Amino acid sequence: MDDLINLAELTQGSPPVLVIIEQHVLARTCILNILKRELTGFEIVEMATTSGLNSLSGRDIRLIALNIGDKQITDPSIEESLALLAESCPKASVAVLSNRNDDATASAAMQRGVRGFFPTSIPVEVAVAGLRLVLAGGVYRPLPIVGQNGASSLKAISECPDAPELFGANEGNGATRIVPEKAMVDLTPREQHVLEALQLGLPNKLIAVRLNLSENTVKMHIQRIMRKCSAHNRTEAVIRWSRRANGHAQPSRVRSS
């Protein structure tokens, strides 16, 4: 009984936990250092296998990132790992890191309750933005944007109250019903540059440095982008414009400033 009391005292007031499960030490250490820098306020714990979760009993685990490498989601070992995560940490969101970048693998992951699918080919800035989205209750999977310098965007978000018009209810098979978009006004070249930076998940300060603008000017451009896309926030604006770029809306030329 004393041991249980001491454990409760130790865990009370502890920061929420993010878990990285990656068998390779170098990759695990790199991910750990990036997340410690980008996701402050969380305790980042790294381990080689799911068996290490036993040491975190009683902790507030918010997210578990599992690297499956080249394996398919349907691989028995991956199926077993995902089932174990769901059973041992039912309140934690699960994100999968994969060397595969195909829609079938991403869809299979979503159908098994995975909240984030992260191919190892995406930029680190996009991955961090996607993890923030998952932590906020959304669902992340990348979608290449043709003509946008290979940047990635967000394809599906559910349970995100800031984007009610863009996404409907979950259809029960891992897919999210998309609500038709309103007509969008063309962006100026500068607004396109700001949008490209938003697609990388960059904060206003870094966008300002990247484009040699003041932060106030960046904020002004973002507000205009949101208004032209009929979006409630920057993430929704990126999604709406990405869908248009991929043929979900009639394309048109960018007007001059």
Automatic annotation (TrEMBL):
Gene3D superfamilies: 3.40.50.2300, Winged helix-like DNA-binding domain superfamily/Winged helix DNA-binding domain (1.10.10.10). Keywords: DNA-binding. Residues 180-245 form the HTH luxR-type domain. It comes from the Bacteria. Pfam families: GerE (PF00196). One of its GO terms (molecular function) is DNA binding. PANTHER family: HTH-TYPE TRANSCRIPTIONAL REGULATOR YHJB-RELATED. This is DNA-binding NarL/FixJ family response regulator. It comes from Bradyrhizobium algeriense.
